[in-house]
Design goal:
Blueprint (H helix, E strand, L loop, with lengths): L10 H26 L6 H12 L3 H13 L7 H31 L6 H13 L8 H22 L2 H29 L17 H12 L4 H29 L12 H16 L1 H7 L2 H12 L1 H15 L9 H26 L3 H8 L4
Helix pairs in contact: 1-2, 1-3, 1-10, 1-12, 1-13, 1-14, 2-9, 2-14, 3-8, 3-10, 4-5, 4-6, 4-15, 7-8, 8-10, 9-10, 13-14
Length: about 375
Amino acid sequence: MSDILKDKRVIFIDILRILSILAVIILHYSADLLTRTNDFNTIPWWISNFFNSISRFAVPVFFMISGSMILRTEIKSYKQFYVKKVLPLIISLVSWSFIYAVYNQYFVLKSSMNVFQFFAHFAYGLAFDRNYIHLWFLYAIIAIYITVPLISKLVKACSEKDLRYYLFFWFLISIFYKFISDMVFRLTSEYINIPITNIPLFMGYLGYFILGYYLYNFSIPLKAKNLFCNLGVISLFSTPVATYFASVYNGTLDEVFYGNYSITTFFMAIGTFIYFKEKEETLHERMNYKVQKLISSISKASFSIYLIHVLVELLVSRRSEVDANLLQTTANLIYNVAIIFSISYVTVKLLNLNKYVTQVLFGGKS
């Protein structure tokens, strides 16, 4: 078992949170240009495709971090767990769904809805995840957290061999089989459907959740570490190229290699997690207290930054031009991502000065 828990904060987890939230901001900002043009041979499209591709590890890593942290805790009371862990997520989901719904209806669409119509529309959107695109993550993580009191007992009762067995079949069904199915569909326009692969326990984000727990608590052989890290690097550079050829073949942006269950996304995520876990001891030795404190502060704010960053992006960012050159496109992307991240972080910290605002907007999370 890992001995990382000697310190209250785990630096590599904090760094992964920061890298992942930066990657999410890159994903959302670069998606605008990618979806505005089907000219795949322009420099702006390639720059956006490259940055979008290399940021795809973010969402799986967020699930892996959650699994690594929450599945190791001892849950003594279902009620206490739901109040402390699930309720804050629900509060955040309702609050930010409402904020984005108001912004979209009255500032973007210039809607003339009255209060009753708005709340009816909002309630429908909240129930069926129709309010704002990035909030889907909260629905997924809430669904998993509801099962945590049971899943936690299950994984702790499992041996390392049992967990490897689960992860192997989850990979076969959720990653490999999906990859083959997607490739067959793009070549033949026919989906392959093997009914025996429809096993709910081996499907979905729960696999990433348990994968994070496994990698955090168990050491894997050096050859396996090197293999996953190398496949992660290969995936990093092959994703933009594969996306280009798939998009050219399809005639429009093809996101098959962008998906959270894409085989390249999987290897990027697992390679990133393993790489930074291996650096934990080195990070502790080389970082002074002030740097660690700053990293901890940003890491703690990552969930809140995730909630607010799209609103900040809508208000302050400038779109990339489809005919810009290499320097203009790259500088514009870096500048806007930095501005969105900085304003989101500062805004979160200011909002957290009031405990009631923190409770209402972020479920009490700082």
